Amino acid sequence: MTEPYVKHSVNQHIGTIEFFHPAHNSLPSDILSKLAETITELGQNDEVLVIVLKSGGNRTFCAGASFKELISIEDEATGKRFFSGFANVINAMRKCPKFIIGRVQGKTVGGGVGLASAMDYCLATQYAAIKLSELNLGIGPFVVGPAVERKIGVSSMSQIAIDANTFFSPEWAKQKGLYADVFDTTEALDEAVDALAQQLCAYNPEAVKHMKQMFWRGTEDWDKLLMKRAEISGRLVLSKFTKEKLSSYRK
Asked: What is the mean pLDDT of residues 189-197?
């Protein structure tokens, strides 16, 4: 696999969305846009009763924002537009009337932690360590922060956001509520994801819809909130500090 993609399939009422990017499953604007569009599409598909969100490859679930695209940002409007891509994906997941199961097979960084946090039920392997690295770049996890905070609490979110150099273990993530369970192998993870997806297909779709609304109560302002956060990130990415940091990664 060398070309980026977002693809989906529907099998026995289970909708599976898979994204891939050769740069450790990083997320450029086009991937983010397609993810939001596909989540919304399957959420509106009556044939789909549950959604599984996964990434391609075996090592990294998601490396977060595309460094190549971050480096190319030259004005605030472009910066806001890029970071609003993460906002759109999280809001699509929030509004989706179907349960979304996360399948996290490997390390996840930055925006990838935001994706995992927006899952309704997230399963992972022993290799799925997490890191909020944004502060290292002078940006901060502003857009994904509300999703992470909602899932693991302010205290735990602030811990990983401040300690931006450290990968926190899957066991830590499970203890804090990000992962529902952690498995030794990808094969065991896939078996658990499939079993859970089949189980959820047996539930009343109307009950699931209302439960999603109940679980996400209090997030009704996120359409505006996450866009405001995207403005902050879009402004900070132009700072001298961040430009120098991003340039250092080119060397």
From this structure: 98
